[in-house]
Design brief:
The protein is of the alpha+beta class. The chain contains 14 helices and 19 strands. It is 36% helix and 24% strand. The relative contact order is 0.13.
Length: 512
């Protein structure tokens, strides 16, 4: 499935008190009404919940050597994994933080997390979904500590297809907090151990099954905001590691298993994505041709992506363009209070090419707590709690609102850092690569707006009309807008900086 190409690294431990970047970030949060802290009653409720004994009534799986795999410095650990080989396939155990053990329905904490919706990540600080006493302590699957979890038991056949799945409440104890980089290094060196070797084996199988279904994974190079020890910020582009894709496949297969359980039980909430418009696919084929990428008609979109290397500037440009196929993601609830139990038609997730549900990140995303509770009840043969059914109809609106805010906040934060790195360099020329160009419809719309201000008729765009696009600057690692005549998608260009404004959160280039 598509991979977001923005990541914010852990913040520096000490930051200066007066800094134009920090001032701009604070102003951004105030403008977007992002809360600086949790209300006192929410903190009190979370602190009391963190002291609860949540070990009773659970299967004891503390002898299973789960591990977590996350970016360095992560403390809000939603998932821990354990894999083993069976005579005719594999067993996947996936432990998910059990937030329902700590959040009382209808309480102050419940109301606050329903307002927040998801964790927000900024360069200087994180705005968590839950108070740190839960998200970074009592509810987080930190190593060497007993933790409440919803553990998925998924059996795969020898081809990696799901043969059986169930989830139950358990007590777990993670044995290690690993990072993607160290797992990849150990796998490459051949000394990762059997369990992590199986992560690669199962991940590759699931990627192959994804391609067979017609699903896609877009490993677009990530833009990292890095906070340095001295309080300054930097930017870097990096290609995603193979282990990140393999680890994501474990999460995806769990979401597919959850959707099957929900469909069978007649209650649930799917994550949906409509199929790509055929016109967009044809546009992407033209883009491939312009970039010199061979895309035979008998080769599927997913098969083509498997041949691309994001380290190539032309391939990276194509991958950035390909993200435009995936628009309109939403949620489809059914079986909630006042809703029919019939599963809606056409509710598959087009990028995954399967029905899919969010259940693996409850510390950072609200909807996962509800999805997990549905599957726990259905697997136990119990009624889905009323508080879950009551919430289902409104969850799509909540997640849409908070998801849009998260995207806007994170993008604007990066814009601020980019402008800061380029302050004082207006007029300088940089080496860059064109990674996105507005299509004909966008050009016509912009030309019409321009013409409406000057003449009665809008001229049709032609090869001599300046178009807008996006460029990636090699140093510093900036992605920003550019304007020029006939922007050469995927080609190296020289661009001149014409604006870098921290206050306006804007960086703009022109072809030199």
């Amino acid at each position: 499935m598509p991979t977001r190409n923005l990541r914010v690294a852990p913040v520096a431990p000490t930051l200066p008190t007066v800094d134009p970047v920090l001032t701009a970030l604070a102003a951004l949060r105030a403008e977007m009404e992002i809360p600086a802290e949790f209300p006192s009653d929410v903190v009190e409720e979370a602190s009391a919940a963190a002291r609860l004994d949540v070990s009773t009534g659970r299967e004891d799986l503390r002898d299973v050597p789960f591990v977590t795999i996350d970016p360095p410095g992560s403390m809000d650990l939603d998932q821990a994994v354990h894999l083993e080989r069976l005579p005719d396939g594999y067993r996947v155990r996936y432990a998910i933080a059990d937030l329902a053990a700590f959040v009382t329905p209808g309480g102050a904490l419940d109301a606050e997390v329903n307002e927040r919706g998801m964790t927000l990540y900024g360069p200087d600080e994180r705005t968590p979904l839950h108070p740190a006493v839960l998200s970074e302590a009592a509810a987080s699957l930190l190593p060497d500590a007993d933790r409440a979890a919803a553990v998925w038991h998924v059996t795969l056949d020898e081809r990696g297809e799901i043969a059986d799945a169930r989830v139950e409440r358990a007590l777990v104890r993670s044995t290690a907090r690993l990072t993607y980089e160290e797992v990849q290094t150990r796998l490459d060196a051949g000394d990762a151990g059997q369990m992590l070797d199986l992560l690669r084996e199962i991940g590759l199988l699931r990627e192959a099954r994804e391609r067979e279904r017609g699903g896609v994974s877009l490993n677009v190079p990530e833009q990292d905001v890095v906070a340095h020890e001295d309080g300054s910020f930097g930017l870097a582009f990096r290609s995603t590691l193979p282990v990140e894709g393999w680890n994501a496949q474990v999460s995806l297969l769990t979401g597919i298993a959850a959707a099957r359980i929900m469909r069978s039980g007649g209650v649930g909430i799917f994550r949906t994505l409509p199929a790509a418009d055929p016109r967009d696919l044809e546009r992407l084929r033209r883009t491939a041709g312009a970039l010199g990428i061979d895309w035979p008609r008998d080769l599927t979109y997913g098969e083509l992506l498997a041949t691309l290397d994001s380290a190539s500037s032309r391939h990276a440009a194509f991958l950035n363009e390909a993200t435009s196929l995936f628009r309109g993601a939403s949620y489809a609830p059914f079986g909630g209070t006042g809703q029919p139990a019939e599963v809606p038609d056409d509710v598959a997730h087009a990028a995954i090419a399967a029905e899919y549900a969010h259940v693996t990140a409850p510390l950072r995303r609200l909807v996962d707590r509800y999805g997990t509770e549905i599957c726990l009840a259905l697997c136990a043969g119990e009624d889905v709690p009323v508080w879950v059914r009551d919430a289902l109809p409104g969850l799509p609106r909540t997640m849409a609102r908070t998801g849009q805010r998260a995207g806007s906040y994170e993008r604007a934060s990066v814009d601020i850092v980019e402008a800061a790195l380029l302050t004082g360099r207006v007029g300088d020329v940089f080496d860059a690569v064109v990674v996105d160009v507005e299509n004909d419809e966008e050009r016509r719309r912009r030309a019409a707006k321009r013409a409406a201000r000057t003449t009665a008729a809008a001229p049709m765009p032609d090869a001599h009309v300046a178009v807008r696009g996006q460029v990636v600057i090699v140093e510093p690692a900036v992605r920003a807008s550019v304007e020029g005549i006939g922007l050469p998608l995927g080609d190296p260009v020289r661009v001149r900086l014409r604006e870098a404004s921290i206050e306006r959160r804007r960086v703009d280039f022109e072809i030199a």
